[in-house]
Amino acid sequence: MSARVIVAACTLFGVALIAGYVGWRERSAIAVWLAPEKTPSSLMSEKARSANAKFWEVLHGGRYDDLPDVIEALTAAYLDDPRDAETAAHIGFSHVWRLSERARIDRLPATITDHAVLARKYFSEAVRLAPHDDRYKGFHAGMELAEGTLHGDEKLMRRGYFDLMAAIEGWPEFNLFTAGYIMSRLPFDDKRYAEAVAYQWQNLDVCAEERVDRRTARYDAYMAKETTSGRKRVCWNSWIAPHNFEGFFLNMGDMLVKQGDPETARRAYANAKLSKGYDAWPFRAVLEQRMSEAEENVELFRAPQAGEKIRTMMISSAFACTGCHQR
Q1: Which candidate in 41, 115, 132, 287 could, as Cys together with 99 as Cys, close a disulfide (CB 3.0–4.6 Å)?
Q2: 309 lies in which domain range?
Q3: Are residues 96 and 166 in the same domain?
């Protein structure tokens, strides 16, 4: 909003107020409209740097039990500077991690669902402060879907779905996976589940820069495209997600198993072994077991057992986040 527009609006507001033409509802609407926008900080504080470093140390170490301390440190830093987009996003992701890997918790409290509400709030702040970061938009949309589902809020669920579609358009290499992963919780016979599987194939297509064979699922021909820069860096492993590539194919295989195609799933799982970091991946034994049990897992993935930590869909497992992020 330009200074001239603000001055004109304030002048009109003042004249109307003096003349007695404006009631409290109109005054409140104008006052909110004229409030300054929240803008991002130019520098990260030392306190925030320390808290964010702790976040990465704990995530890369897979130390789920340390999450309460991480959330406390990040939140304290954010309250000191609520204009820090990165810290806000990491608070959101910490709450997502707490919720996503709840299979680790033996006695699950009903209040675990509060993490979805908090995650959405902090991702909304991250999106407001860094509106051009489509990763934050994807995570925020996912939390809209999660919270809408928890509260039976159809409007919020629909908003989340279409916000997710917009995030895919903004950064397909990143958000096609995000969308498919979030939607992998749907029943196998839901039309949106088929859409979620299609997103995984499309993700491979945009990373490979051509259509990947849906029958063979072979990805070895594209390994020379690996990069650590640009938007396609998210197709591969990185410092942020040391086993992103392996985790992608673990999830994709799971989704194909649930869909009822264990044969193609086994080939998708096998692509994880193409990674240079495969031997160091903490979850390689899980993937290899999945390959041998693919047919048996069809029904297990469609009707998961309560309390199952490993032999369940990746999205519902004890490694829902650490499958990609743990060193």
Answers
A1: 115
A2: 205-327
A3: yes
